[in-house]
Amino acid sequence: MLLNVNSQISEQPESTHARVANILPANTPMPLACDACDHEQDYNMSFLRSLPQLVCSQCSDTRQFSRFELTALEVALNNMGYYLSKTA
Ligand SMILES: [Zn+2]
């Protein structure tokens, strides 16, 4: 009976509704710590996607942000329930 099917669908547990994907805009600041002095600086995701050179404002340490780090960052965010907007 059709009515019975409808009532079953509406009786889904609360947890399925609680799992909301949080979309992060591409300009969300991401704090990254400097390898040399642990100074944290914010970089936004659209900047990090360009795989830039990161220059520490504290000690001027320069390093290349790698595709591996970008992927690791995105996976970590996904695991926390955050999804990055692909529009930069
Ligand atoms: Zn530094």
Q: How does the SSE layout of this entry go?
A:
Blueprint: H1 2-10, H2 14-18, E1 22-24, E2 29-33, E3 40-44, H3 45-49, E4 53-55, E5 62-64, H4 67-79, E6 82-84
Parallel strand pairs: 1-6
Antiparallel strand pairs: 2-3, 4-5
The protein binds zinc ion.
Features:
two-stranded antiparallel ribbon, binds zinc ion
Task: Describe the protein in words.
It is a single chain. With 88 residues, the protein is of the alpha+beta class. The protein has one domain. Helices cover 36% and strands 25% of the residues. It has helices at residues 2-10, 14-18, 45-49, 67-79, and strands at residues 22-24, 29-33, 40-44, 53-55, 62-64, 82-84. The strands form 3 sheets. It has a two-stranded parallel sheet. The protein is elongated, with a radius of gyration of 20 Å. The N and C termini lie far apart (49 Å). The model has no long low-confidence stretch (mean pLDDT 83). The structure holds zinc ion. Zinc ion binds at residues 34, 36-37, 39, 56, 58-59, 61.
Per the principal axes of the C-alpha atoms, what is the gross shape? elongated
Cofactors, ions and other ligands in the entry: zinc ion
Main sheet summary = 2 strands, parallel
| Total number of helices | 4
- Total strands: the figure is 6
Helix content: 25-40%
Q: Domain count, please report it.
A: 1
| Low-confidence parts | none
Give the strand order, joined by hyphens, for the main sheet: 1-6
Oligomer: single chain
Structural class, please? alpha+beta
N-to-C order of helices and strands: HHEEEHEEHE
> What is the rounded distance between the termini?
49 Å
